[in-house]
Amino acid sequence: MNETDKQAFVDRFAAAWAAKDGQAFLALWHADGKLYYPFASRVIRGGEIGKLNDLTKANAPDLTWKLIDWTSRGEVIVIEWESSNRYGEHVVTWRGVDKLTLRDGKVIEEIVYADTAPLQAMRRGETFDALIQFPD
Q1: Are strands 64-73 and 29-36 parallel, antiparallel or unpaired?
Q2: 20 Ramachandran zone, left/alpha/beta (phi>0; psi -120 to 50)
Q3: Are 54 and 131 in contact (CB under 8 A)?
Q4: To which H or E segment does residue 80 belong?
Q5: What is the pLDDT of residues 69-124, one digit of tens each?
């Protein structure tokens, strides 16, 4: 893939998130691809990406996703993003990175890196304290 192809892929990826469109996500994936996603109970196959989109919309209807930046090397694209979601009266924002390995312009593997600890604590009704309390 050349740089133009990579930019077009990232644009389609961001557009799929903006539209929350399962078909647009499926178009980016090989059916036998694998998604390693810290918010899911198992590895998700590429052919299941539309179902993941539906589950996400049902379970987190206020979820937002925003592209921050991206880079690439060879057939690997790394996307930095920011998400937010409403939990009761609170809006929580977090950042993460997706490492996508492409084959023939489609995702064969994606690994999502995001710290789920603050969200897990909130889900349990706990506060999440930083490991390092930095003085003001």
Answers
A1: unpaired
A2: left
A3: no
A4: strand 76-87
A5: 999 999 999 999 999 988 878 888 999 999 999 999 999 999 999 988 888 887 78
